[in-house]
Amino acid sequence: MTPQPRRASRIRRGTIGALLTTTLAAVSLPLATPAAATGPAKPLAAGTYLITLADQPLVTYDGSVGDLPATKPTEGEKLDVTSADAKRYRSHLTDEQNHVAKKVGATVRQHYAVTTNTFSAQLNAVQLVQLARTKGVTNIAPDRLHHATDEKNSTDFLGLSGRKGLWAALGGTAKAGKGIVIGDIDTGIWPESASFKAPALTTRKPTGNHGKKPDKNDLYRPYLDGTTTVMHKADGTTFTGTCQTGDSFTAADCNQKIISARYFGEGWLRYVPESNRGGYISPRDSEGHGTHTASTAAGNAGVHATADGNDLGTISGVAPAATISVYKALWQSKDGKQDGGLTSDLVAAIDQAVADGVDVINYSLGAMFESDYDDPSQTALRNAAAAGVFVATAGGNAGPEASSLDNTAPWTTTVAAGTVAPYTGTVTLGNGKSYTGISTSVHGTVGSAPLVRAAAVKTADAETADADLCMAGTLDPALTTGKTVVCDRGTVARIDKSAEVKRAGGIGMILVNIGNESTDGDLHSIPTVHLGGPDATAVRDYAATDNAAATLTSGGKGDTYPQVAGFSSRGPSSASNGDLLKPDITAPGATILAAVAPPGNQGRDFDFYSGTSMATPHIAGLAALYLSEHPTWSPMSIKSAMMTTASPTKTADGKKSDDAFAQGAGEVEARAMLKPGLVYDSNEQDWLAYLEGVGVDTGTGTKAIDPSDLNYPSIAIGELFGTQTVTRTVTATSAGTYRAKVDLPGIKATVSPSVLRFSHPGQKRTFTVKLDVTTAPAGAIDTGSLTWTSGRTTVRSPIVVTPQVIHAPAEIKGTGTSGEATYSVTPATSTLQATARGPVSSPLTKGSLTGTAEIYHEAAIPVGAKATQITVHFDVAEGNVGGVVWGPMVGGVLQGGAFGDPDSNGTVTINVPQTKADTIFVAVVALDYTGNGESVTPYTFQVNHITDDSPVTGKVTVTPDHGRVTPGTPIDLTAAWSGVPAAARSTVWIEYPNGAGTFLTLN
User: Fold this and answer.
1) What pLDDT is attached to residue 156?
2) Of 126-130, 150-154, 222-226, 871-875, where does mean pLDDT reach its minimum?
3) Non-local CB neighbours of 388 within 8 Å, separated by 6+ positions
4) What φ, ψ does residue 261 adopt, rounded to 5°?
5) In a 3-state reduction of DSSP, which class is residue 42?
6) What is the Cα gyration radius of the chain?
7) Model pLDDT, residue 264
8) What is the pLDDT of residue 878?
9) Mean pLDDT computed over every residue of the chain
10) CA dihedral 153, 156, 158, 164 (to 10 degrees)
């Protein structure tokens, strides 16, 4: 996913306006709401839906329907959709779909049968209710919009090039990925790029001399059989595709690199009016995203890249000998608001890719929120993996917020974006101080020149906030000419900011981050350095002083790498409840140079993109390299090999990172992955058992497992309640004796057996890991690892657990100066202890806001604070809106933001237990909709900190407060209070062992 520019703010009073709008957008985007399969509780909007039926699709059908033979391929084989049995069963599924649609008076728009038994149809609310009650319907989902997720040379960084690189070990770039087809589901392709230059397709089949077997170098050469492209693959099966013609795309645009190209837009073309359609109705790429991902995964080796007259060196795809099959399912709209692809088109693309016989799918896209496991697109990818296709998916670009991932299903490899050796530029200020940032556009020395904040050179009618963002048309040429301009990041695309500075006559730009965001190496239209963190603040502040000046130069000491990029989405996965670690792995995804489509990139043939979209094709390409060596390995074995040989990424200060929710298993190590020693494999039945375990009814009768017991290369437990044992099975790739070691602070780990012996490859051994909480704090994420070692071979699995010693409500409430409240808790140990701390009722701060306005508060967290409760009470006039935006701060930097709505009493309550922040930032906001802008909104602000020595206002007891209990058996506690003030909020923290607790909110 390539990071998208932030939405424009309607509130232009300081930085909180942008934060508020961004936060609101995160919870109110106009995405369709999934329909309930058991009958809706409220009216549902009419629209296009995808309806999934119970019978298995072609890739998993086991012969359980009447006299129809199984179509599921045997182990090591690929699906043959052209067989008589496949055609017969496909006809059965189509008839079944038509019958179900007809029962509710609907007409099928699209049929899917290869990877999912699904059809799409236009449905109204009545039809949805009828379908939800129809036997055999397992899922109903809206046709929603998905978006592309958008060493200095990433292939050098991965250790692919050079005499000791992986390419050399595989026989050179001409053999790296030979016999493998990568299916790229994206925005299409620009076939004229040098990254895809190859001989034309011909009708000449691979043949040997005098009827002998074809030469090994010719064995996998694709050829034409009529309009069908045929390619014999490394696994012994055959790929068949076609070059679908359309706008500015002919059959001649395919070749022996791009062996097939199709487009899927039926749903999107129906959704978007013709007047708003951009680009090409064909496989041709107008944006550049698909060209970038395809060339990263499998572009030619040693391609000379230039842009704007600058020599950018040579680039190569990760698997330069692999071939590419294009499945365009993401589209461009003229206004940009309807860019992306609908689920119906994506499922069609996945279906066709598997039918064609691809070995790898690159899926550099996602939705704005985490996709459900039974979303039709995720179901299609599950069955693609069941058919033996390795699926690499983008984790998303909503980082560094927690639980911001998409594509988190266990059958795909979810990829985070890491940094590589940066392209740098240095800003030297007139005061002698220098700051190094990211730059691909400073090639010499620029300046010294006057340095200004953008708002200082704005046009007379431009708003200050707009000018600071360097929006188009906001800078005055008479004031800007000859100057270097500081532009704030946000709202406007980064390259559009430099274009505005150039238009107004500026000679350079310094792009500064306002929040905790990535720095990116875009090809700007004028020399630009991108700064973040304290450096950005220092330059921004200096630029506002009199006679400020700056010089831009190329180079400078860059940041430590590889780090997980700030934009890369983080776990934990909400769908798994923390019982499956995602992302899986990190790959290069920041400032990646690759081929692009000139129409969407200022006429350039090559450009730098950043995003998990760019990281994903690195993993797809590495999977192709793996399959060229081990053609029959399962997708999960390959994922395991990558994960267990990965290395930790780094923190900003150069230390090893332990943030598993950012990096997964760590940065992929291309040279190590081919010799994993042991692998953790899983298949369709395992995934169905996992789905049942997380509460998804698969309709298959599969017995549920504890989700933490899925045979995965990592171990995750969302709630470690005292003690839990997980089970894993490993398969040896070479003989050896392996010994286990667990590193997990505050938890006693017992591996049984702790020694595994293998006499030959293919042997399997099962072991358990028992985890007992000792000193690990409750509610805090605990990370570590399990490592099996045999000689020089190490097999490392990350472990992420969240210990709990008691299940208790996060908050209970009471009213009055005295009273009591009874609630239930479930202890994990035989000893119960509950300590009431408080009540605390701090003085109220009174304030008011006039019109649309905001007021900032910062609540400093005292040392040793156990919990903090912040209360904002509004007295809002009818028709107006009040709310708060808040977030934790560390070292003066806001770490995230959340929006709080008042309850029915006009009160917003912010509960912050066991925070690591030193300050909580709160912006109190009023939106005036009266029309006169003079409405007054009074409010009160209160902060109650709970510490060991907090002054109390009243008395609270908990009964019982200690005693012997039965682990796992609920027990009632009663909190009683007296002497608390009636006119103000009082806060109590009921503390349990290891720091866990319950807020008691009074009045």
Assistant:
1) 64
2) 150-154
3) 73, 76, 77, 78, 359, 634, 635
4) -150, 125
5) coil
6) 30
7) 97
8) 82
9) 87
10) 180
Closest CA relative to residue 684, chosen from 670, 699, 667, 702? 702
Cβ contacts of 909 within 8 Å, gap of 6 or more:
869, 870, 871, 900, 903, 1001
> For residue 963, which phi and psi values (nearest 5 degrees)?
150, 175
CA 509 from chain center: how many Å?
A: 30
Cβ(27)–Cβ(901) under 8 Å?
A: no
> Are 609 and 150 a contacting pair, CB within 8 Å?
yes
**Gap between the Cα atoms of 391 and 363, Å rounded:** 7
Tokens describing residue 188: 């299409």
Cα→Cα distances 648→343, 357, 619, 785, Å: 35, 35, 16, 11
Q: How far apart are CA 377 and CA 901, in angstroms?
A: 33
Q: Is 857 in contact with 924 (CB distance < 8 Å)? A: yes
Per-residue pLDDT, 685: 95
The DSSP symbol for 329 reads -
- Laid out side by side, the sheet with 936-946 consists of 845-850, 936-946, 867-874, 907-913
The DSSP output letter for 69 is: P
**Identity at 508, one-letter amino acid code:** G
Is residue 621 within 8 A of residue 298, CB to CB? The reply is yes
Helix 684-693, helix 376-386: angle, nearest 10: 150
Measured between alpha carbons, how far is 80 from 87 in angstroms, rounded to an integer?
Answer: 10
Is residue 751 a contact partner of residue 712, using CB atoms and an 8 Å limit?
A: no
Positions marked catalytic: 186, 289, 613
In the numeric block, which tokens belong to residue 286?
Answer: 């107008």
CA–CA distance, 907 with 1001 (Å, rounded to integer): 12
Residue 152: both structure tokens together: 């200095």
- Which amino acid is it at 995? G
**Run of H or E residues at 938:** strand 936-946
Give the DSSP H/E element, type plus range, for residue 990. Answer: strand 986-991
Cα 142 to Cα 372: distance, rounded to the nearest angstrom? 12
Angle between helices 612-629 and 289-298 (to 10 degrees): 30
What residues contact residue 938 under an 8 Å CB cut-off, 6+ apart? 846, 847, 848, 874, 875
Interval 767-784 mean pLDDT = 89
| pLDDT score of 14 more than 90 | no
Question: Ramachandran region of residue 340, left (φ > 0), alpha (ψ -120 to 50) or beta?
Answer: left
Please give, one letter per residue, the 3-state secondary structure of 389-432.
Answer: CEEEEECCCCCCCCCCCCCCCCCCEEEEEECCCCCEEEEEECCC
Q: Would the pLDDT of 266 be above 50?
A: yes
**Token pair of 404 as six digits:** 């911001």
Report whether 196 contacts 597 (CB < 8 A): no
Angle, CA of 201, 206 and 209, to the nearest 5°: 135
Q: How far apart are CA 549 and CA 536, in angstroms?
A: 15
Angle between helix axes 635-644 and 612-629 (nearest 10 degrees) is 110
Strands (E), 151-288: 181-186, 223-225, 228-232, 238-242, 258-263
785: nearest Cα among 749, 819, 836, 757: 749
Count of C-beta atoms within a 10 Å radius of residue 656: 10
Residue 78's φ and ψ, nearest 5 degrees, are -115, 155
Q: Spell 107-122 as b/e; 16+ CB within 10 A means b.
A: ebbbbbbbbbbbbbbe
pTM for this predicted structure: 0.75
CA distance 225 to 205: 9
Alpha-carbon distance of 112 to 812, in angstroms, equals 49
Reduced to 3 states (helix: H, G, I; strand: E, B; else coil), residue 528 is strand
Contacts of 438 (CB under 8 A, 6+ apart): 422, 423, 424, 425, 519, 520, 521, 529, 530, 558, 591
Q: How far apart are CA 338 and CA 345, in angstroms?
A: 14
Cα separation, 486 vs 537, in Å, equals 11
Contacts of 633 (CB under 8 A, 6+ apart): 626, 627
Nearest by Cα to 391 from 560, 627, 197: 627
